[in-house]
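re: the backbone from monday

yeah here it is again, tokenized this time
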């Protein structure tokens, strides 16, 4: 077939309410109760919520105050990131029993390429089921999985039968699956983009597929080409075992809102030191410094400056962050500050961005 895409067997494993599940694992008395990791009834931001809490509309990044308002019975627990990392490493070791092509996205999700695997098992579906069972037996928490011919579809599929389920999209099912998929369920289409698409009459993958490449590019910029190709089952990104970060950052949420820039400068120094440690540990430097400001009304603002040289030094990062802080008047009191570094010295130029028209081989056992 002309322009035939390389066929792979990709699994996306996504832990179910990971932080909350670990807390329930370590403290069984929390099971069955609406639970939020992070935040409090007065302040802070929810890092994760279990499914009982989600029934009340509690979500990550929601204020603790609003979470309590939505769900008066909610239980707040402090996050224990060292413990989550420990559990994540146990899960990752299970992945490596099947393939070395493992690309972690975060502590609680990863892509696995099992086209050729250590078990010699031709069925990615059975491998995903076995991995999920091992995670439950050996770790004690549940995971969901998506299985398909590329990372994009596997990622979307993993959310279909959550929690504690999996979804396989076979090669011959790819186009029908994408055409009937609600546009808000496309990975990478956020709330703002979805609303924009609704106004254009785009509600499903089929609606999206009817739009020309030129129309999508003129409407959505660079993302337009991405939407055009993924709805046709085209996504060439391979599973990358050593994922290169695009940015490194550190941030702090304060127990009390800050209105004095003097106090903010003091906090920025601590944040810059934490960022320096992370950069040093990863042996990374960058050119673009971004200051993140979250106000007391939860509006978010970022200010960036690109330097003519790579930096990793605390003093230079802090100096630039201070300059960005004074760049313009603050709109309100501040509840969070963050500093990140991007345009890193680890980034490589993309040499092959060409996307071919879709042509899928149908006889490929999943």
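seq for it, each position gets an aa:
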């Amino acid at each position: 077939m002309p322009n035939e895409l390389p066929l792979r067997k990709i699994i996306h494993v996504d832990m179910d309410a990971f932080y909350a599940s670990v807390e329930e694992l370590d403290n069984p008395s929390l099971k069955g109760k609406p639970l939020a990791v992070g935040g409090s009834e007065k302040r802070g931001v929810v890092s994760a919520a279990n499914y009982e809490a989600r029934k009340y509309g509690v979500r990550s990044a929601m204020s603790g105050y609003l979470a309590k308002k939505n769900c008066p019975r909610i239980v707040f627990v402090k996050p224990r990131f060292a413990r989550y990392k420990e559990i994540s490493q146990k899960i990752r070791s299970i992945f490596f029993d099947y393939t070395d092509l493992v690309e972690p996205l975060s502590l609680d999700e990863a892509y696995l390429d099992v086209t050729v695997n250590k078990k010699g098992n031709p069925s990615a579906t059975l491998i995903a089921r076995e991995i999920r069972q091992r995670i439950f037996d050996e770790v004690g928490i549940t995971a969901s999985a998506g299985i398909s011919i590329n990372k994009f579809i596997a990622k979307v599929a993993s959310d279909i039968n959550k929690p504690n389920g999996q979804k396989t999209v076979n090669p011959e099912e790819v186009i029908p699956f994408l055409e009937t998929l609600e546009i808000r369920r496309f990975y990478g289409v956020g709330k703002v983009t979805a609303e924009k698409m609704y106004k254009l009459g785009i509600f499903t993958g089929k609606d999206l597929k009817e739009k020309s490449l030129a129309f999508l590019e003129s409407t959505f910029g660079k993302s337009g080409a991405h939407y055009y190709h993924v709805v046709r089952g085209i996504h060439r990104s391979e599973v990358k075992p050593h994922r290169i970060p695009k940015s490194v950052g550190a941030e702090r949420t304060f127990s009390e809102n800050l209105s004095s820039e003097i106090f903010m400068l003091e906090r920025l120094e601590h944040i810059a030191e934490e960022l320096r440690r992370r950069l040093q540990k990863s042996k990374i430097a960058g050119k673009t410094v971004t200051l993140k400001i979250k106000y007391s009304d939860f509006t978010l603002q970022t200010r960036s400056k690109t330097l003519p040289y790579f930096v990793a030094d605390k003093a230079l990062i802090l100096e630039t962050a201070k300059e960005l802080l004074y760049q313009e008047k603050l709109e309100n009191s501040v509840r969070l500050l963050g500093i990140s570094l991007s345009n890193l010295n680890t980034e490589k130029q993309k040499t092959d961005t060409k996307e071919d028209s879709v042509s899928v081989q149908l006889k490929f056992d999943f």
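The chain has a mean pLDDT of 90. The longest strand covers residues 247-258.
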